[in-house]
Task: inverse folding
């Protein structure tokens, strides 16, 4: 029987690449979620086949009621989740602490921190009792070290680190594996979102080095998710070779 994987933020970047990876591997049915419904529908059309069933849920992870009612609306045959990939998230702005936009801060905290809490609380009851349940949380190198102008984004990812560690302890009694993955710079829509559509600023982030791509992260998520049941990667930091930590890059001019 196929395992059921629920992916938040499946419309782009890491989440989309993971959906493609699990579908290509076979043996998984996918619950794909995000706000952009047309993208979810396109993915469903593309990935669904004789071996992989796909269902979609459109909701904003910031909206507690929407999260809980979307999960509650799943038909009975989808109410057994084996793998939860808490991936939805974003950065908004890159400004000095004393100049940053308060709305940007609210959105990052509401999405990266509170959204992850809401989705987890809504989905964990569907995981308890599954043979080998696994939660994979998307952190960041920004959740391991702070960098200049990272302020609230870093704080939201430090929180993901703390939540992951706390989940690992509190969910021991349900034998739920908890893995946190912390990537460095990866070229997705992330920087376009962070810089609010400013292509030039977004492109500059990846200038002079080869960044990670979404498929690199999908490979790592898949690897973590397919280890033997008694093996759990707790915490995994991954950067491209040109990045040493959250701050140091080697850029070719
Ligand atoms: P993308 O912008 O390409 O994808 C972000 C995904 O998150 C989209 O599918 C988006 O879907 C979803 N999302 C954002 N806000 C919400 C919301 N309020 N409700 C529901 N879904 C939401 O970025 P990445 O793939 O790069 O980012 C994925 C995760 O990885 C994020 O948590 C990010 O912080 C983290 N990360 C990214 C790194 C990078 O360099 N790219 C490095 C380290 C971590 P939609 O807009 O349709 O709702
Ligand atoms: C995204 C990576 O370095 O832009 O989490 O914070 S970074």
Result:
């Amino acid at each position: 029987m196929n395992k059921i994987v629920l992916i938040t933020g499946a419309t782009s970047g890491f989440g989309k690449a993971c959906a493609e990876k699990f579908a290509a591997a076979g043996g998984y049915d996918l619950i794909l979620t995000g706000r952009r419904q047309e993208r979810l529908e396109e993915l469903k059309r593309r990935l669904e086949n004789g071996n992989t069933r796909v269902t979609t849920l459109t909701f904003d992870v910031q909206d507690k009621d929407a999260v809980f009612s979307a999960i509650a609306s799943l038909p009975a045959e989808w109410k057994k989740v084996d793998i939860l990939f808490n991936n939805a998230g974003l950065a908004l702005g890159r400004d000095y602490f004393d100049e940053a936009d308060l709305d940007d801060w609210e959105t990052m905290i509401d999405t990266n921190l509170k959204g992850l809490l809401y989705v987890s609380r809504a989905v964990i009851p569907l995981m308890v009792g599954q043979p080998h349940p696994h939660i994979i949380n998307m952190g960041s190198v920004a959740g391991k070290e702070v960098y200049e102008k990272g302020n609230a984004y870093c704080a939201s990812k430090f929180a993901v680190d703390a939540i992951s560690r706390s989940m690992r302890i509190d969910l021991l009694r349900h034998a739920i594996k908890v893995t946190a993955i912390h990537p460095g710079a990866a070229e997705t829509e992330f920087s376009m979102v962070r810089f609010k559509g400013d292509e030039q600023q977004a492109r500059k982030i990846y200038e002079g080095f080869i960044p990670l791509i979404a498929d690199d992260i999908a490979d790592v998520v898949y690897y973590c998710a397919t280890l033997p049941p008694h093996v759990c990667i707790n915490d995994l930091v991954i950067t491209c070779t040109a990045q040493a930590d959250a701050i140091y890059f080697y850029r070719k001019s």
